[in-house]
Amino acid sequence: MKLYSYFRSSAAYRVRIALNLKNLPYEYMPVHLLRAGGEQLTADYRKLSPDAIVPTLVDGDDVVLQQSLAIIEYLEETHPSPPLLPAAAADRAYVRAIALQIACEIHPLDNLRVLRYLVREMGVSEEAKNGWYRHWLENGFASLEARLSADPRTGTFVFGDTPTLADICLVPQIFNALRFKIDLAPYPTLQRLYEHASGRDAFARAAPGAQPDAQPDAE
Known about the structure:
By secondary structure, the chain is α+β, with helices and mostly antiparallel strands. The protein has helices at 10-21, 43-48, 68-78, 89-106, 112-120, 126-150, 165-179, 188-198, 201-206; strands spanning 2-5, 27-30, 56-59, 63-66. α1 (10-21) links the parallel β1 and β2.
C-alpha cells in the first residue's frame, strides 16, 4: 500500500493512525500542500485525486481511494482485526457519530483551504481568521465534551478501553487545536482522552512530527 500524505493534514493523520493500529505496512508518499503553490494541484497528482486533496490510499493495482473515513472503513472491511468499531450496531453508530461530528462538522470549517480562502479571497485579517478557527473549534469541542463526559461508555478511550474510529478522528483534531493555542481546560474529558491516546505507539508513530516530510516551520 501507498499513502499519499502531508504531515500536518488531519485527514491523513487519521489514516496513518488506522494503518498503525492494524499493523499494516505502507509506503509514505509525501504531498506538500504548500510548496510551489501546492503539490496536490499538479497534473500528476490530480490523476490520482481529481479533488486535489490528501490522503490518497493506493492498494495494489486496482484500488485508489480518497476521503479518510472511507479509507478507514475500507481498511476495517479488508483487515478486520483488530477492529476499529464495536460489535453492537448501536455502539458502532455511536462511534461513527462522534467521528463524523469531528470530520464533517468541525474539521471542514477550519481546514487549510478554508482558512486560506478567508485571507486571500475575502480579505479577512489574521486576527479575524484565528477568531473564526476558535469559534467553530470551541463550539464543536463544547458539544463533544458534554456528550463524552456524560456517556457511561467513555473509558480510557472514547468508547471503552480500546481505540476506535472516534479516537482516530479526535486525536488529530486536538493536535491542531493545540497548534492554534486553544485552551483545553474547559474540555477535561477531551484532554484526558487525547493525552492517553496520543501516548500509545500507533498514535505516536502517526503524529505529524514523526513523519518523513515533517517541517516545524510549515504553515
